[in-house]
Amino acid sequence: MWWGVAAALLANVLYSTGFVLEKRALTALPEVTVRQPVRLLRLVLGSPLWIGGSLALAAGFGAQLAVYRTLPIAAAQGIFVSGLVLLVLLSARLLGEQTSGRERYALGAILAALLMVVLSLKEGSDHVSRAAPYPLILLVCVPSLAAGVWLYRSTERRAAHRHRLPTTGVEYGVAVGLLYGVSSLAIKGVSSFLTTSDLGGAVVDLLRSPYPYLLLCTGAFGLVMSQAALQRCRASLIVPVCTTVTSLFTAVLGTLAFGEALPHDPLRLALRIGGTTLAVTVLLTMPKHDNAPRQPVEAKELTPP
Question: How far is CA 209 from CA 135, 144, 176, 180, 202, in A?
């Protein structure tokens, strides 16, 4: 279990570093859009700083495989979300991003909510599942992928209006979070095929499962969508929202899909349900727009009557 905790903390560092490096690289690039994915890929692949960030994120996914082999899904998500603190610190230090007082309270409440989820765990009573029914995984993941893409496109259309206030990125974060939630369940599924014996058979069984194809879909859509959103919005807000949605999605639906039962103890059950409810409530009440910069008022020349 301690190897899993160490791997989760390492994944936090890699994810936070990767997102900040990508955001810093994107600020120096021309505007990118999901409507021109080939141009977007050409621009980001020409940035060494962005490539470094993407390699850090890829290493984070690798660490996540080890986490899901040793920790229950809900426990893993609680540790992953603790990395939001590091992300906010790095964003302030390296990107010069400042969060408002309301947003800091919201992030604190999200951390408190997911701490409640972690406290609902009890060593020895939570088992680590290795498999889930494929039809159930597809029933959970396919509509979530569609919902994430639809929400992102709807946000893009609304943001295109000239007189609309600049978005903070909450909607973008929710949309990308749904995709990464599906990706997280797919990584959990792939981890069940890791073995040191009969490697060939394990690869064949993996290719017969839906997990590698879900990873391909989420990787393609998530790459393009997340880069456009990161360029337009503050990493210190969009990444925490994305991480929260991903963690809640994985903890709740992953626990059900992989058969990792909810606590029977009333207190632990209340902590898990209460923490989930609090996080969702905070997410829904977070500000949806940044304050538009005030334009200086020009002095008007008074003409005598």
Answer: 10, 18, 24, 19, 11
Q: CB neighbours (10 Å) of residue 211?
A: 24
Structure tokens, 248: 């809640």
The total number of residues shown for the chain amounts to: 305
- Compute the CA torsion angle 182, 184, 190, 196 (nearest 10 deg): 180
Rg (CA), the chain: 21
- Residue position matching structure tokens 């017969």: 208
Predicted model pTM: 0.78
In this structure, what token pair is assigned to residue 293? 């910069």
Contacts of 201 (CB under 8 A, 6+ apart): none
CA count, 13 A, side-chain hemisphere, 36: 9
**Do residues 153 and 296 touch, judged by C-beta distance below 8 A?**
no
Cβ(1)–Cβ(123) under 8 Å?
Answer: yes
Continuous segment of H or E residues that includes residue 110: helix 101-119
Distance, first Cα to last Cα, the chain: 84
How far is residue 38's CA from residue 155's CA, in Å, rounded to a whole number? 21
* Tens digits of residue pLDDT in 67-112: 888 888 877 877 787 777 778 778 877 777 776 777 677 777 877 8
- For the record, the structure tokens of 8 come out as 């989760």
3-state secondary structure of 86: helix
C-alpha to C-alpha distance for 263 and 221, rounded to whole angstroms: 35
Q: What's at 196, amino acid-wise? A: T
pLDDT above 60 for 249? yes
Residue type, 236: S
DSSP assignment letter at 264: S
